[in-house]
Specification:
Elements lengths: L2 H7 L2 E12 L4 E5 L5 E5 L3 H5 L8 E7 L4 E6 L5 E2 L4 E2 L3 E7 L7 H13 L4 E6 L6 H11 L4 E4 L8 H8 L3 E5 L6 H8 L3 H8 L15 E3 L5 E3 L22 H4 L19 H8 L4 H20 L7
Parallel strand pairs: 3-5, 8-9, 8-11, 9-10, 11-13
Antiparallel strand pairs: 1-2, 1-4, 2-3, 4-5, 6-7, 12-13
Helix pairs in contact: 3-10
The structure holds guanosine-5'-triphosphate (GTP) and zinc ion.
Length: about 300
């Protein structure tokens, strides 16, 4: 068959598709879209000339040669692009939090959610450490967030509900977000023991780009699916949102669009504000509205600092 000759010459055997999962200084590692196998790929010289720079998460077409290596031929259009970490084609955010040790802070949760909404990424809220809480505590949390976000209660320690979380992750490219200490690393390890270890063993031959400051890689779950090894939104600073557009990042407010007396109502102190009525009636949760006001004021102040220059 082809093997001896082709292996020697690196003859192209097949054109295939895959996802870039990490970079070395001169090459990159790609997971094949069909088989899930990993291989090292090089980049054609013309990419540099053409200013084409692949990033982690890119879906690529590559040519597989007889020596088991690949050569990237093209990068498929990016569906999404996250800046920190720099990663493309993320399909969802897992917002990991705990209700105890540490106790969740509503404002921080709401900031994460605004960042995810702004990035137009679906969110699953993973409530970890449910071994530490009772049903009522979980219900109280679900009452605030359950209508607009999928909630997946788990215990990484006691291995509760991990299969459901695996279903959420399966076949997708995900990134985790969440405060320090909520159990993100523990969770990755419970979902797929040895995840990080195995990955670095497999690709020891791949030289790390030593001078890259923000190094990110996608870890591959055995059950299928990729996840960034670096939490997303580590920096909770709000993006450049025009204050009057903040309501679009709160699903319970944006779904009432057009219901307020003034069409440009920002739901702060206008008369006839339907959103405020819903807050009074208890159908929009007060803590969510309070977070909205805090972030609104923050954005407003920032806008004024910029000399009233409008953006967004
Ligand atoms: N009781 C309980 N403790 C847990 C659970 N999951 C994780 N922990 C503990 O919570 C602490 C923090 O866990 P980590 O996995 O390091 O949290 P992290 O989110 O990765 O933290 P950073 O690396 O700082 O971002 C550790 O002491 C874990 O043992 C759980 O389900 N139940
Ligand atoms: Zn209003």
């Amino acid at each position: 068959m082809w093997s001896v000759k082709a292996e020697k010459k690196g003859i192209v055997l097949e054109r295939r598709k895959g996802v870039v999962v990490r970079f070395g200084s001169r090459n990159m590692e790609v997971v094949d879209a069909e088989t899930g196998g990993r291989l090292i790929c090089t980049m054609p010289g013309r990419f540099r000339l053409q200013g084409i720079r692949p990033i982690v998460g890119d879906r690529v077409e590559y040519a597989l040669s007889g020596d088991g290596q690949g050569r990237i031929e093209s990068i498929l259009p990016r569906k999404t692009e996250l800046l920190r970490p720099r990663i493309s084609n993320i399909e969802q955010i897992l917002l990991v939090l705990s209700l105890k040790e540490p106790a969740v802070q509503n404002l921080i949760t709401d900031r994460f959610l605004v960042l995810a909404e702004y990035a137009k990424l679906p969110v699953t809220i993973v409530v970890n450490k449910i071994d530490l809480i009772n049903n009522e505590e979980l219900d109280r949390f679900s009452d605030v967030y359950g209508e607009h976000y999928e909630i997946c209660p788990v215990s990484s320690k006691n291995r509760i509900n991990l299969d459901r979380l695996r279903e959420v992750l399966k076949g997708k490219i995900s990134v985790m977000a969440g405060m320090s200490g909520v159990g993100k690393s523990s969770l990755l390890n419970s979902l797929n023991p040895g995840l990080k270890l195995r990955v670095s063993e497999i690709s020891r031959g791949l030289e790390r780009g030593r001078h890259t400051t923000s190094y990110v890689e996608l870890l591959q779950f055995e059950f299928g699916g990729l996840i960034a090894d670096t939490p997303g939104f580590a920096n909770l600073e709000l993006p450049v949102i025009a204050p009057e557009n903040l309501d679009k990042c709160f699903p319970e407010i944006s779904q009432e669009q057009g219901m307020c007396a003034f069409s440009d109502c920002v739901h702060v102190d206008e008369p006839g504000c339907y959103v405020k009525e819903l807050v009074e009636a208890g159908s929009i949760h007060r803590s969510r509205y309070e977070s909205y006001l805090i972030m609104y004021n923050e954005l407003k102040e920032r806008e004024q600092e910029k000399g009233g220059r409008k953006y967004g």
